[in-house]
Structure formats: C-alpha cells, structure tokens
Write a structure and sequence with these properties.
With 557 residues, the protein is α/β, with parallel strands linked by helices. It contains 19 helices and 24 strands. The protein has three domains: 4-128 and 251-428, P-loop containing nucleotide triphosphate hydrolases (Rossmann fold, 3-Layer(aba) Sandwich); 134-234, Domain 2, N(10)-formyltetrahydrofolate synthetase (2-Layer Sandwich), CATH 3.30.1510.10; 445-527, Formyltetrahydrofolate synthetase, domain 3, CATH 3.10.410.
Length: 557
Amino acid sequence: MATSIEIAQHAELRHMRRFMEDLDLTDEDFEFYGKYTGKIRLRTLRRFADRPNGTLILVTAMTPTPHGEGKTLTSIGMGQALGRMGENGMIALREPSLGPVFGIKGGAAGGGYAQLLPMERINLHFNGDLPAISSAHNLLAALLDNHITRRQKPPIKVTDRCWNRVVDMNDRALRNVVLGLGGRSGGVPRESGFIITAASEVMAILALAESGPDLKRRLGDIVVGYTPDGDAVTARDLDAAGAMTILLHEAIMPNLVQTMEHTPALVHAGPFANIAHGTSSVLAARIARKLSDVVITESGFGADLGAEKFFHIVARQAPDLWPQAVVLVVTCRAMKHHGGVPEADIEETDPAAMEAGLENMEVHIRNLQKFGVPVVVGVNRFAFDDDVEIDRIRERCEALDVPCAVHSAFAEGGAGAVTLTETALAAAQDGSASPTYLYDLEASIEEKIRTVATDLYRADGIQIQPAARAQIHRLTRLGYDDLPICVAKTQASLSDDRSARGVPKGWTLTVTDVELSAGAGFLVVVCGNMMRMPGLGAEPAAVHMDVTEDGEISGLF
C-alpha cells in the first residue's frame, strides 16, 4: 500500500485561480505564493461583511495516545465529505511546527486520502509565517537586551523574569541559557532561555488578532520585564510594536490551500494546545465563514486542552465563533491505551481494556456538554479495529444519548466521512447550542484554576507552589487577574502526570508557575513538569527523512 507521502506526491493539484473563481476572490483579495497556495488579504472580510456567517463545527478529541487520534485527518475528511454532499464547505486548521514534524509526529497535514496539499510546503516553512513570528519575537528580545545594556528608561530588573527567545525546533539544550558573556561588548550577563515558536506569545497574538491595528496594539501590550519597583515594562515602552508588526505584515494573512479532493482550506497560525491555546486564527475562521456555508475547524490535543481554550479564550473574545456543534474524535486504540494496554499489544482485541478506556471518552463528552454545545462522537477507524469494539463505543454513546458515527477518511477520503459529517451537520443545525462559560473573568486567578482542575480534569483540588503564588499576587496587584487562563499541562493525561491514563482519581493539580501573556490576553498556568521547549525522543522522525536526487522528499509523514 502506498504511504501517505506517496499518495500526496501523486495527487492532482488545482491552480489557485480555480479556487479564486469559486470563492469570488479577485486579484485584490489574493496574494499568490506560487501556483498552489497563497494568502487572502484582510480586505476580503470588509468586502463580504454583509454575507451571513457559515455554520462552524469544532473538532476535538479524547485524551490522545502519543501518535494522536486523527483530529486533523477527521477535519480534512469531513471537509472533503461536504464537497461530496454538495455543500459549500471549507476547512480552517493550524499550521504545522517544525518541532513536531522532525520530532515524534512527522507531517501534520492529515494522512492517507484525507490530506492537505501541497503537503511538503505546508509542513516546511509554510509561506514564511513561522519564520516571521520567530523573527518578530527575537527582534523584541534583541531590543530588550539593547535597552538593558544601554541602561535606558524605564530600568529593567535583569534578575526578574524577562522576555525570552524562540526557535521552531525541539531543542532541550536551549531551555536555560546565559546571555551577555564575552565582556562589556557582549551585553549584560543574565539568565534566560528559549521556548518553541508555537509557544510564543507572538504566535498567540497572531492567532487572536482581529485586524492589523489590533495586532499592533496587542504586540505593544506584551510585558517584557519589570522595573526594580515591580511595575510592568511593555514592548510599547521599548517602541518595538511597529517594527514587529512590519515583520508580521504578510503573516497575518491566512493561507489558502486545498485538500486531495479540492476542498478549500485556510491554514493559519499554529499555537500548541498543551503549552498555548491551540487553535487556528480568528481571522481564518471569520474569512472561512464568509466564503462558505459550513466551516470545519480544529483544536489541539484532547478536549481538556484545545477545546476548553477555544471556549474560554477564543470564543470569549470572539463570540461570533462559538461553534454550533463539536465532534469528539475517538479511537479503539486510545480506548485500549487508557485501559492499560501496552503499545506492543494495542492492535489486539481487548474488551476489558476497552471498557476501562470508555470512561475517558465519557468524561470528555460530559465536559463538552458543560459548554452548551451539541456533541457528536466520531470514531476514526483503523484497519485493525474490531467490530465488537466499535459496537461497544456506539452502545456507550447511545446510553449517553450522544450521536456516534464511524469514519474511514484515511482509506476512503471524503466518501468515508459522509455519515459523520451528516451527523455533525444535523447536530449543528438543530439550534440547540447555548454558549456557557465555566468561570467568570471577575473570579480570582486561583478560583479559575480550581474550576478548570476540578470541573474538567476531575482533580480533588489544586496545590500552588510558592513561586506561582508569588506571581499570582504580582499579577493581581498589576490588574491582570481579570484575564482568562491558559493551562499548560501534559496532553497525555487528564491529570498533570503524563503516565496517568484513563480518568485519574485521588490527585491534586500542581501549579508550578503562572506566566503573563498580556498581548494575547491570557495567563499561562504551568502545571507539573510541563516545558515550553520540547525535546527530541530517542528516535526522532528526522532520522527517517531524506530527499532523492530528483528532489522527492521521503519520510515526512
């Protein structure tokens, strides 16, 4: 059987002109990046302001295995199914990061017969967006260190937390570094560190910005450090926002690509959901809803991460993006994983493990229902799945009065996802969505953390370590306590312990730090031993990648 990359490399691509015609885009609306991709200018939103918004369906998942459960695959498959159903559909997804691409996951543009094209370009330096974000972030870091070296006003306490640097790669050696060595010409020595670009506040700002002026305002709001008196120093104080906005001038425009079945897709921004807020851009979603009747979008990792943040951060800021329905992607593989089956035996039938793993799915269903959205369970079927196990998922969903549909988009493309898409569309169009937040912004930072920990993660309580409590006190004093929270924790468990499967019981969420993202408009609550700079595994995906003499890439998926 052909590999995913071989399938993608032999797929037919349509010229962007075809999509411009279908979407009613003019040359003034579109910036070409070659024949098969380009960017939609923000003027398009103004031009189509009077058009009604299309239906928005959010795709999320149960707690994933290390390989993921196929949210992107499902989203693409559903988008392709919309075309087969005669619906005017579109997809809005995040951009891949080079870290996971060369780390554990390989490519992040779907798989099999449900992929985004051109796959290689999307996975590698896609239209320059992530390099632009890295450059804007690091420009601010350079301006900060120049400000410190030249002892300019306002003064910055270098022993306090300051703006770090980023690189779009998994590189644990850069987590903690010392800057300014080499004498006076090297600047002021201080401790600092790197995080991955996907965790940058600039990435989050790009994903949440509603316009060019809003992007500049948010960049100016970034807090880069603190004075000796404890006051916040912003990028605006360093006169950095204008230059940073220049670097992001093209990156703010969503990228248009296509699926294997020629469904248009907007791919824009790529914040991780375990260490950031985990959704594609507000601008991409809004443009997609003006250009189509149905939009499929995705949030990263399990529903305890990406979906929760979509509701509490994205849709709180942009209420027009509250989804009409949510698809929860589940797999028999994940059920057995959470039932305790080791990786080597995951393809074997195990009814007892399936039963234990169903509890994880049920918790995610009940959590999503708390936000007042109709939930549909989508079973991503693998070739080795047993009908008895799939029937058990159906039975549990029936007992919970939740629609369930199986899809085989990997093997059959859009044809394999028609039933799931029809089910999700019916749920979305019944008008039962009733937006609900689990905490008020006026609640204290500690109360917000406790609500998410106990109501969604099923923790018994929270433990806030001294450094985190001191930071909560500071942020409250400075008036940032009215922001929503963005929990940074492991994606491998509902808890903060990545080894705890299923639905852990009798545990306490440990908060180790709270970081301010004032420009993005949220507080990053770091839990357990979560790192914002991942490391490579024992056998990174990169070691299996190569390029032939003819220029064909292998091993990218």
